[in-house]
Amino acid sequence: EHASVDAIERYGKDGPGKEGSVVRARFTLGGQSMMCIDSPAKHAFTFTPSISFWVECQSEGELDALCEKLVASGQFYMPPDNYGFSRKFAWVGDRFGVTWQLNWA
Q1: Of 38, 34, 33, 6, nearest to 22 (Cα)?
Q2: Are 65 and 88 spatial neighbours (Cβ–Cβ below 8 Å)?
Q3: Per-residue pLDDT tens over the stretch 41-64
Q4: How far is CA 74 from the centre of its chain?
């Protein structure tokens, strides 16, 4: 409900990326506008948990619902719990390898 895909441009059959992959996309998460690409260049790296999105949840229910959706085919780095710095916190890697730190202060 707090997310939208605002624009997406895909590579055609003439590339340079794989047909249908993303040249550039713009999306909004929680009011924050972001962009992403499918790079046609070969890289020696993939996603790592060293970069993650921080999400301030408005309720425990919101944090729990986000955890449930994000962990599907993903993994917990820190399952939902009180770690002493907030009421409830979770660190989740989603099915794409993107990591999310969810906090309910």
Answers
A1: 38
A2: no
A3: 888 877 777 788 899 999 999 999
A4: 11
Q: What is the pTM of this model?
A: 0.70
Cα atoms found within 13 Å of the Cα of residue 93, Cβ hemisphere only:
11
**φ, ψ for residue 99 (rounded to 5)?**
-105, 150
Q: Which residue has the tokens 């955890």?
A: 67
- For residue 18, which phi and psi values (nearest 5 degrees)? -60, 135
CA 18 to chain centre: 22
Helix (H) or strand (E) holding 24: strand 22-29
Tokens found for residue 36: 């992403």
Find where tokens 């986000």 sit.
Answer: 66
pLDDT at 84: 94
CA angle 28, 29, 35 (to 5 degrees): 50
pLDDT(1) > 80: no
Structure tokens at 89: 């916190």
